[in-house]
Amino acid sequence: MSKHFFWLTKDQFAKIKPRLPTDTRGVARVDDRGVISGIIHVLKSGGRWTDAPRDQYGPHKTLYNRFVRWAEKGMWSGLFEALAAADGRQCSGLHRR
């Protein structure tokens, strides 16, 4: 594994998990921690969705769709506020894997 991949720690993910939507229909969501980490990877790197390593984060279309749907619901600010409220160091130091 490369140190250039960004991942939420298990503790960080545990802090935001209660805020994740539970009203999904159809097929269950894939690995939330992996998808959210992939979205953060793309945002932090400034890359394109298609540049996200599929073997690390899953399909780029999944990352993009989740980002857009949750942005429309205003989810992202709440997730990052939960991390900041729990421990400011956790937001500034996303875990590299």
Any overview of this molecule?
By secondary structure, the protein is mostly helical. The protein has one domain (6-17, 30-96). Helix content is 57%, strand content 4%. The chain has 6 helices and 2 strands. It has helices at residues 10-16, 32-45, 54-57, 60-72, 75-86, 88-92, and strands at 6-7, 95-96. It has a two-stranded antiparallel ribbon. Helix 2 packs across helix 4 (60-72). The protein is globular. Mean pLDDT is 84; it is low at 89-97.
Write the topology of this structure:
Blueprint: E1 6-7, H1 10-16, H2 32-45, H3 54-57, H4 60-72, H5 75-86, H6 88-92, E2 95-96
Antiparallel strand pairs: 1-2
Features:
two-stranded antiparallel sheet, 6 helices, globular, disordered C terminus
Q: Going across the major beta sheet, what is the strand order?
A: 1-2
Structural class: mainly alpha
Order of helices and strands: EHHHHHHE
Overall outline: globular
Short overview:
This protein is mainly alpha-helical and 97 residues long. Helix content is 57%, strand content 4%.
